[in-house]
Write a structure and sequence with these properties.
Blueprint lengths: L8 E2 L13 E8 L8 E4 L2 E4 L1 H11 L1 H4 L5 E8 L3 E8 L16 H5 L57 H16 L13 E5 L2 H13 L13
Antiparallel strand pairs: 1-7, 2-6, 2-7, 3-4, 5-6
Helix pairs in contact: 1-4
């Protein structure tokens, strides 16, 4: 597999001292069971979603409304034939009361460019579109593959108290996968997700733009993708 700054962390191998309820931007990848093409196909460098793919899109877009107390914001996401990429922000909420003001991983740090101009994006509304991007061209890929990613600098760990385990990243992804599975089984009883998911704590604006560009260009670069299969 190609490398992107290190290695993926899987759900059961927690980053030491990091509370996954913390205010931060997270890059998440979820694969289908056996990498089967359940979600559609790539045509003319774009994904054509089938009925299950539409379920994935619609259930993901519901996430902030279903978890209003977690103050979530969806950013870029891509539904591919056999996997799903997304960036999700967990903003400050009652479950992750900060014990320090030195938070380099929150939404403001990600969206603010080095000259403080920021990124114009519709995603600040909390409802994401997979293609309203504003920052990428088809040739600005930036990432060989997300399949092996840096999991975050330990120097930014321990910035939050550990809160309820039902109010963290794993809970969000678990609920999303469950709702998709229930609806998908009405169409195809064989549907399944890979048991674990991959995640990466986005540390700064540069990394955020780099990963966002990767997600945007995933359909264009499908045949070079780590998860590519026919």
């Amino acid at each position: 597999m190609s490398l992107f700054k290190g290695k993926y962390r899987i759900e059961t191998a927690r980053l030491a001292n990091w509370d996954y309820a913390s205010e931060a931007a997270y890059f998440v990848t979820i694969c289908t069971k056996n990498r089967y093409h359940y979600f559609g196909k790539i045509e003319n460098d774009e994904i054509t979603l089938n009925d299950i793919g539409i379920i994935v899109r619609d259930e993901w877009l519901k996430t902030p409304a279903l978890r209003q107390d977690m103050n979530l914001m969806l950013d870029e996401f891509a539904i591919m034939p056999n996997h799903f990429h997304c960036i999700i922000f967990i903003d400050n909420n009652k479950y992750n009361t900060p014990i320090t003001t030195n938070n380099t991983t929150g939404r403001d740090a990600m969206l603010a460019s080095p000259n403080n101009t920021g990124i114009a994006s519709p995603h600040n509304t909390g409802i994401a579109s997979p293609h309203n991007t504003g920052i990428a061209s088809p040739h600005n890929t930036g990432i060989a593959s997300p399949d092996n990613t840096n999991i975050g600098d330990p120097s930014i760990a321990s910035l939050r108290k550990f809160g309820p385990q039902s109010k963290n990243l794993s809970a969000i992804i678990r609920g999303f996968k469950s709702s998709v599975t229930k609806l998908a089984h009405e169409i195809n009883p064989d549907f399944g997700w890979q048991e674990r998911f991959h995640d990466h704590i986005i540390k700064n604006h540069e990394s955020y733009v780099h990963i966002r560009n990767y997600i945007i260009n995933n359909p264009v670069n499908w045949k070079e993708d780590t998860f590519y299969s026919v």
